[in-house]
Design brief:
The protein contains ten helices and seven strands. The radius of gyration is 18 Å and the shape is globular. It has a single domain, classed as NAD(P)-binding Rossmann-like Domain (Rossmann fold, 3-Layer(aba) Sandwich). It has a seven-stranded parallel sheet, with helices on both faces. It is α/β, with parallel strands linked by helices and 266 residues long. It is 41% helix and 14% strand. Helix 6 runs parallel beside helix 7.
């Protein structure tokens, strides 16, 4: 691994000249991360779900980022289509001029049901999007980054990387495995100057958690257990993602950075 650069602190977080591929960038945490990376100077390629009903694609997320002055390209891919995912990184490379320095795997889906009745299709869907698509993209990123001896891979894990949760067996299984995948890739690639790390969100006020937010009993139970006294917001991930994407985290390898208002500390 290359030594950490001898730069002023402010320069360590500068992403000028870097290209980032971001999944899940159209809403919630992923959108906040994409904006933060762009604000730090990175050029972006974000993944959009292709329209399926013959309608015009929704380019509003791209236009919103471009309105801030960000350099943004996009590629269409349904992450549930694993055959399409196999070609996603190369398509993104072509769009970004042959170089991707940062991969942020933020996309994910959720299915809730008691374990005794959890549908097999829901299991396959969740494991496909939340784990296998991340593996396929990360493997392709490694094939690009390792020979070049530079790169950052950031996987979005979860509190359920460490805990089992309730009525989300597939999500817990996927996120637990993703934490171990993050460490496994880091073990192999750190020596090649490619840092692989994870971010583990706590309870964040996004549409993925709308059922919890709408349940007054669970909302109270969860809120009372968060030492910070509030649920997280997508903007709480701007700093962590820029840190892990930048030279500031040169010697941070295989880390699962928990961003949860102190939940795990209890």
């Amino acid at each position: 691994m290359d030594p950490s650069p001898d730069l002023p602190a402010s320069a360590l977080f500068d992403l000028s000249g870097k290209n980032a591929l971001v999944t899940g960038a159209t809403r919630g945490i992923g959108a906040a991360c994409a904006k933060a990376l762009a604000d730090a100077g990175a050029a972006l390629c974000i993944v959009l779900r292709p329209p399926t009903d013959g309608s015009e694609p929704n380019l509003q997320p791209v236009e919103a980022l471009r309105a801030t002055g960000a350099k943004v390209e996009y590629v269409f891919c349904d992450l549930a289509d694993l055959e399409a995912v196999k070609g996603l990184f190369q398509k993104s490379l072509d769009i970004m001029g042959g170089s991707i320095d940062i991969l942020v795997n933020c996309a994910g889906i959720q299915r809730r049901s008691p374990a005794v009745t959890f549908p097999e299709k829901d299991w396959d869907d969740v494991l496909g999007v939340n784990l296998k698509s991340v593996w396929l993209l990360s493997q392709a990123a490694g094939q690009h980054m390792v020979p070049r001896r530079r790169g950052k891979v950031i996987n979005f894990c979860s509190l359920l990387t460490f805990q089992g949760g309730f009525t989300v067996p597939a999500y817990a299984a996927a996120k637990g495995a993703l934490g171990q995948l993050t460490k496994a890739l880091s073990n192999e690639w750190s020596q090649h100057n490619v840092q692989v790390n994870g971010i583990c969100p706590g309870y964040i006020a996004t549409d993925m958690n709308e059922r919890l937010l709408a349940d007054p009993v669970r909302l109270r139970q969860i809120s009372e257990r968060i030492p910070a006294g509030r649920w997280g917001e997508p903007k709480d991930f701007a700093g962590p993602v820029v840190f892990l994407a930048s030279a500031a985290s040169q010697y941070v390898c295989g880390e699962l950075l928990v961003v949860d208002g102190g939940w795990m500390g209890r």
